[in-house]
Amino acid sequence: MRKLISIILLGMVATGLFMSISQIPFGEPGERIGDHFINQGVNETGATNIVAAVVVSYRGFDTLGEVSVLFTAAMGLGAVIGLVRRKKTHTPIEPASLIVYTGCRFLFPVILLVGTYIVIHGHLTPGGGFQGGAVIASAFLLMYLGCRGKRIRENLSRGLESLGGLLFILLGVTGLVIGRDFLFSFLPEGEAGNLISAGIIPLIYMAVGLKVGSELTGIIDHLIEDTDELPE
Amino acid sequence: MEIFGMILIGIGAAFLLIGSIGIYRMPDVYNRIQAGTKCTTLGSFLTIIGVGVVQPDWFWKTLIIALFVLVSNPVSSHALGRASRKKRISLYDKSVVDKTDEFTGQQK
Amino acid sequence: MEIIAGILVLLMIASAIAAASFQDLMNAVIASCIVSLLAALLFYLLQAPDVAMAEAAIGAALVTGIFVIAVKRTKRFEE
Amino acid sequence: MNFLSEYTYYIGAFSLIIIGLYIILVKKNLMKVIIGFSIFDTGIYLFLIAVGYLREGTAPVFSKPGLDAGKMVDPVPQALVLTAIVIGVAVLALAVILAIKIYAHYGTLNLRKIKEQRW
Q1: FRET label pair with A207: which of B45, D82, D92, D113, CA 20 to 30 Å apart?
Q2: Is pLDDT at C39 greater than 80 in this prediction?
Q3: Which residue ranges make up each domain of chain C?
């Protein structure tokens, strides 16, 4: 019965979606809000990656809101984990073999370097704070899986995360302090295409990368720590 | 130079094809892991290097990517094989030799 | 290029159906990981390299890791 | 047939959305429902990116001089999806940890057996 109702409902949703989707033209040029960003983005912000310009400069305030959503989710996760404090029963974790251990130890700095590169070059090439932060977090995931027992201190990840958020807000408030708008780009734009250019976009992307990387690392750390205490 | 790169890509693609046939044909997990690892490591290495030879601007980037594949692929396959051995997945009936207990015997 | 996109879309739909129908949750997790990877390739074909990068790093590595930890923590088989 | 080749990406996004909704509505296992949410998310991202595509356009990155700005795809949906993906993984982790806690409390992940979750 429940399945029947679900499928009927699904059929209705599918019909509506199909009718609306088939009206949208694919790949046709039209009235786009992005035209202004594409045509004027390099002049106005100095970043050659227009997506970075949109994320950090044109929609910077939204990005601040989204980063705070991320922070709220991580905070809720920590609260839920801390809700039930089970007693520590140390089940012996079998260590990974020597090959895996050495391989992870070798690959970890390489992936970390790639993540940092992606964060720093966010305003020039595809990439940026969100992608680089995700790559950094996946490097820590590799370390947690390959080298069991090694663990970054919780205070460190929490501190870095707070530092990232604080940096973002401070950079935004600086624009207010010097008498302009929130997130005003107070640094010179420089020549588009150089590493040091585009005003405060690289700085904000670094803050975002720091925040996203430490946030996701903290989430993985919570999950793995919770798993290790499994009472068998 | 471009023809040399194309030849490299062709050899790599052939190795990848052989590897996928091996994954399809081999009888048990361990043989499949072996076929997959050896052929895909060499195949993807040659393909990536070939791309770098065809486009000389990208040569150093492709070299780094190829080295990364060269390190990560055997390690992950080793982890897979060890995990499946830990789960006591049985070998193929006609397997000849099994030295797992000999190597891990002193740990138990 | 359209043929490649069509093949990728077909593979992606097949993986999604597989993720829906597997009883073993670990298999379903791997199938959803394949969906994310193919979606990242499609993003690249749609000229969105930023999104492709994020989707590949998150969909393939982080989400799969989180799901595997969770499945290890709870039951593996769907009853 | 013309429709199919024209709307390949839309069909992929549409199918992912429908499959995700099917999993969410029909399946009994809570972890399966969360996997369904993840697939549903992927479908929506694909749809948004496909709406912003311009035929034979280039990525919105001025990587080398001489790129025509008029032939670039729309950067706004890409920026939206970029932040949405990262938030999606955080929300997904929250859902997963709630599922783990539910399992620790009730001893099952079956939604029919959890009394408070019945609909």
Answers
A1: D92
A2: yes
A3: 2-73
Contact D89 C63 (CB under 8 A): yes
Per-residue model confidence as pLDDT tens digits over A26-55: 777 777 777 777 777 777 777 778 888 888
CB hemisphere CA count around A106 (13 angstroms): 13
Scanning A76-115 for CB atoms below 8 A from D yields 76-77, 80-81, 83-84
Contacts of A153 (CB under 8 A, 6+ apart): none
- What average pLDDT does range A66-91 have in this prediction? 72
Of D59, D61, D85, the CB nearest to C58: D85
CA-based nearest residue to D79, from B98, A115, A36, A51: A51
- At A230 the pLDDT is 45
Quick check: is B43 in a domain?
Answer: yes
Query: Which top CATH class is D2-117?
Result: mainly alpha
Is some CB atom of chain A closer than 8 A to the CB atom of C69?
yes
Q: What does the DSSP 8-state code read for residue A128?
A: -
A64 touches chain D (CB under 8 A): no
Q: What is the ipTM of this complex?
A: 0.84
Tell me: the pLDDT tens digits for A113-124? 888 888 888 888
From chain A, the residues in CB contact with C66 under 8 A are: 219-220, 223
Q: Closest Cα of chain D to C24: distance in Å?
A: 10
Q: By residue range, what is the domain housing residue B14?
A: 2-90
Structural domain total, chain B? 1
